[in-house]
Amino acid sequence: MLHLAMKAFFPSKPPFPLLHVDTRWKFRDMIAFRDETARRLGLELKVYVNEDGLRRGVSPIASGSQVHTQVMKTEALRQALDAGGFDAAFGGARRDEEKSRAKERVFSHRSAAHAWDPRNQRPELWRLYNTRLKTGESMRVFPLSNWTELDVWEYIRAENIPVVPLYFAKPRPVVERSGALIMVDDERLPLEPGETPQIRNVRFRTLGCYPLTGAIPSDADTLDAIIDEMRASTSSERQGRLIDIDESASMEKKKREGYF
Amino acid sequence: MSDAEARQLPTLRFLTCGSVDDGKSTLIGRLLFEQKLIFDDQLSALARDSKKHGTAGADIDFALLVDGLEAEREQGITIDVAYRYFATPSRSFIVADTPGHEQYTRNMATGASNSDLAVLLVDARKGLLPQTRRHAIIASLLGIRHAVLAVNKIDLVDYDQRAFEDIRTAFAQFAKALNFETLTAIPVSARFGDNVSRKSGRTPWYAGPTLIACLETAIVDDERRRGAFRLPVQWVNRPHPDFRGFAGAVTQGEIEKGDSIVVANSGRTSRIRRILAADRDVERAEAGDAVTVTLEDEVDVARGDVFAKPGARPEVADQFAAHLIWMSADPLLPGRPYWLKIGAKTTPATVSELKHRLDVNSLEKLAAKTLNLNEVGYCNVATTVPVAFDAYAQNRDGGAFILIDRLTNETAGAGMIAHGLRRATNIHRQGLSVTREAHALMKGQLPAILWFTGLSGAGKSTIANLVESKLYARGVHTVMLDGDNVRHGLNKDLGFTAADRVENIRRVAEVARLMTDAGLIVLCSFISPFRAERQLAREIAAPGEFLEIFVDAPFETVAARDPKGLYKRALAGEIKNFTGVDQPYEAPTAPELRLDTSRESAEALANAVIGALEALGRVGRV
Questions:
Q1: Fewer CB atoms < 10 Å away: N or C end of chain B?
Q2: Could you tell me the fold of the domain covering B3-221?
Q3: pLDDT digits 0-9 by tens, A194-227
Q4: Any CB–CB contact under 8 A between A126 and chain B?
Q5: What's the ipTM?
Q6: CA distance between the termini of chain A
Q7: Domain B225-308 carries which CATH code?
Q8: Which of B 403-442 lie inside 8 A of A, CB atoms?
């Protein structure tokens, strides 16, 4: 999406800053890639952390995935958007990711409290987007709505776009928990009795908070191999996201509350 | 067709529609399942949900996969447009799954607006229903030229050829008026998969393609590539003084470096100097390409302008005829200003005349004064500035527009332009030999419209009269348009309904505008309760000449004052549509002047109005 924005505004730079809502539990490789990308492109990067949540000790380990996501992601995003007075925020969500996302608009209206009302969305016809807002309201904008996961990877290959190394398979230390392979990205992940990290060849299809994101066993260490693997895949990309399985329709619930 | 040829077919965007319970969602679920596109984790969630909400007994209920939202899972109906993505080895597809109920016509229109083909489902037991006809009509209206009639649940009529043929013939007869270029009927069972992606052994009498084969090979005419070049400008790209580019997506046709172009809206011409596709220069661009172009000459271009080739220009007019689908719970009010968005252009517009309502079940034309939610009408639309457009039938991107409610910001209507109106295109405004500037100069003043708004009894007329007397004493030329007086003459045919109030204000604003052309200071004293209509009056006025003056008095005060005894009667229910009683007054949010009648005398407030005129240089100081 950033690559598209760079192209769309060339030779100008995109007239908006980049915002990362950091839960402090993101993969280290991802953070390094984030900083390097902003530097390389010469763009302003704003990093927002819910300091209040940190002070209260909220973490995926201590609080569980639901509370952690609510406080450090959903609430933090609302705070960050309010603090910046932003009337629109771009996101890379796609309709093929998840059922409730399939009905998301490209220009998704949010009330002044950042709430999404799925029953009362503005119809989107043709390529005519209604972008009008009242004071305090905002838009979440999803330019990649109609892309599929495969489209994204084929585009990355075609345009030679740099990506976080975690998407490529390599031997990494993981533990297996409720069927998911969790990478031991730093020393904060408490090991359960009898649990020892094993080195396995894994990669990620999606990158959330590391204790909540499952890796997949894979040998795909090139773009070609990733695309071949995906064509043969029998599970969806969000399979690794533990936060979706919390309860049925949990994505819709989170989105109503302001999650991306 | 060879594999290589098949692969070149572009992604097919299609729509599924049909009556409630005809099995649309089940069919899509089946399509995804058979292309192995339901992933293991989704399948296990589906099996879990099927037990809880399913209607297919022990089998997996494919519809649950598609009916995304929580609420509708509980009701068992599809409430919105859901988009699905799948691909076979030879083609990619984007499916818009839309609801069947009549109250969701707008959702279907939304799905149809971006589709090139419609799959219409019919229940083999029930045959054509009013909904089937309505959906076919809406698909046709939205410009879909290819239809597939899927006669579903063929298993429930024992794979009877006769049942299939009867439905096929009846539909072909009905669809004659709808201008589909292709129409294919297929007997299917979404539940058991007959003729979906495999040819069924149970319909030996059917020789046509399976549904998937039909979709894989559908040639949807690429009219976008063949049409005349159009590039609506989205953004002026100006990183430094030496570069001035115009960014947008080519919606139709193609362009090459060095080609002559015309800015349709202004008629100015130039030539293409560079075409930038992202970070590199290219020689040409075609429909679908997002580009930034630079021109040989310094031409004034803004967002919303349309580039075309001089030999094939779009129409430019401020009035056109269009089909309109109403999408808001608040009915359409002819005369009320809405935002109109066409391409990248947004401008105020009104529906100047509603010709008829279209019965989407029968294509019958019905007389109508308004359009309600989900109704379709044919109307004349007037914009405040001329816009560039094509007929929708020739160019979907160039002829499509939306109307946005100016108070709620909701998308209130979706329109498809039929043709421009000649009176706008060909009748140019009469050039006046004595200009409005000359009129004003002779009077030693600059024209203005003083628009007094407020509740009945707030003191509008009192203050306006005082202002006029004071101006007269100074030798300033004025005219007074008073609500009560105008209603005795010019507007005596109008009542007090919302629609009539809109027309009342429109006429007054037009008259006031003519008076300012004569150089006069016009005092208008009207309750004018709706923000949208005051905005309309402001737009009719010449720029900078409209002063909105809010005569502010609390309801309790005016109701107690009640100089004409009207509040007493309105509160007793003897007068209907009375502002402040049973009709709202929308106070101005940013008036040029607010007069607080509870704090200052009418005399002092009149002086404040004159002070404002002096400050703006409209009248000389004394």
A1: C
A2: Rossmann fold (3.40.50)
A3: 888 899 999 998 888 888 888 888 999 999 999 9
A4: yes
A5: 0.84
A6: 15
A7: 2.40.30.10
A8: 404, 409-411, 414
